[in-house]
Specification:
Blueprint (H helix, E strand, L loop, with lengths): L6 H8 L3 H7 L14 H22 L5 H11 L2 H11 L1 H8 L5 H9 L1 H19 L1 H11 L1 H9 L4 H10 L5 E9 L6 E8 L2 E8 L2 H16 L16
Antiparallel strand pairs: 1-2, 2-3
Helix pairs in contact: 1-9, 2-8, 3-4, 3-8, 3-9, 4-10, 5-8, 6-7, 8-9, 11-12
Amino acid sequence: MQEGKGEALARLIDALPPERREQVFTHTSWAPDRSSSYERLEFLGDSVLELAIARALYDRFPEASEGRLAKIRAHVVSRQSCAVVARDLGLGATLVARAQDIPEPELHRISLSRNVLAALLEAAIAAVYLEDGFEAAEPAIVDAFDGRIEYARTGHVDSKTELQEALARSGRAVQYNVLAVEGPPHERRFVCAALIDGVQLGVGRGSTKKAAEQEAAEQAMVALGALPSGDPEERAPAAS
C-alpha cells in the first residue's frame, strides 16, 4: 500500500475475522460454489461505497448541483477508480498469496484484472461494513478514495463527451448498446457497451444507464489510445 493512502481502510480489512477474509479473497474460479466467493459481498459493497461517497460529496461540495454531484460520484465509484484504490491497498497481492493450485499465468492475469481488483475492493468494503458498521467504515472509505474525489472534481469526468469529441476529429462516431439489466426493479444494474465502427471497445456497469455508458466510454478511450492506460491520477490537472 502506498504511504498515506487508505491506511484506515487497510487496517479494518486486515482486522477482519478469518472467515470474512476467506470469502473476500476467494475468486469464483476456485470457490467450491459461487456463494462462497466474493460475489455476494461485492453486491453489498457496491451500495455501501456509493452511499459513503455520495455523503462525502454532498458535504464537501455544498454549491455543486445534483447533476455535477452525480457525475463526480459516477467517476469516483467506477470500476477503474475502484481498481486503482485496490492496487493502493495491495488487494491483488493478497488474492495471489491466498490462491492454491492455480496455474501461474492464470493467477497473474486474475490479479491484474481491473474487474477483479474492483470486485475485491467492493467485497472488502462490504465485509468491513458487516463487521464494524457504517459509522466505522464510512470515514475509512472516504479517506481511501480522497485522491479519486479530488481528481474527479478537478479533471474531466464526462468521458462520453471526451470520446465523442476525439472521434469527431476523424469523422467517426460511437454507439452505445445495453447488454444487460441486472437486479430487481429497485436495484437495477446496467451493463452497456461502447461500439466504434461496429467493434466493442468498452463495457461499463452502473446503477444508471448513463453511468454505465460513461464507464464504457472511458474504456473505449483507453483502447483507442485517446487516454493513457495507466492510473488516471497521472494525467489529472493540477488542483486549483
